[in-house]
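Lab notebook, bench 4. Still working through the backlog of constructs that have no structural model yet. Next entry is a single chain of 237 residues. Request: give me the structure tokens for it.
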Amino acid sequence: MNILLRIKRMNPETDTAPYFQEFTIDVAPSDRILDVLLLVKNTFDSTLAVRKSCAHGVCGSDAMIINGVECLACKTLVKDVATEENATVSVEPLKSLPVQRDLMVDQKAFFDKYISVNPFLMRKDVPKSGEIIQTPAEHAKFDDPTKCILCGSCYSACPIVEHKNPDFIGPAASIQAARFVFDSRDTDTQNRLAALDTPNGVSACDNHFNCTKVCPRGIKITKLINETKRALKASKT
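Model written out:
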């Protein structure tokens, strides 16, 4: 089948504004959008900039907006976004992050916010030997956020970051904080919660659920943020 692929292009070194470049391409419904983009790069225009790594939905490198929705290009099939001959498929870079070139964005702000929540286990007493025992029920409390691959899809889809408060730490950083807030092995919960108790912390979330809808790993992001809000409130009583 043929599709009309519209790619949003932008080279800050030479372009004054972004523009769409169109390609009519013969593809199979089972082709991945990442494959289609690499076909364009290898056959039609070698200057196309697109980030990818594992190409199997694990690294999160190729997150982008496909037909208006944040997706991983390696997990999105042509038939998912084009159901008829000559259908238009639009591909754009993630929102709320500066465009480096074409479909590649500068992820520094995203990872700075991620780092700000101390996304690692903090424990005051470390056993001299052996492991820190944890029950399956205790592990289940934070299992969901461990699935995060830091693709940035939720950050791009967040209307708070885009329109209301660009300094909001964002959904990904929020659930990374939750991952350790609810980890029974972590002993610095109070300081971790205090760091989230700011105008740019979890309270900035207005429960739009956009992040949950676009997460390629199916993480219940909004639920985790609300659970963290409740934990923060409980810590003050």
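Notes after review: Strands lie at 2-9, 19-26, 63-66, 69-72, 87-92, 99-101, 104-105. The chain is about 35% helix and 15% strand. Flag for follow-up if needed.
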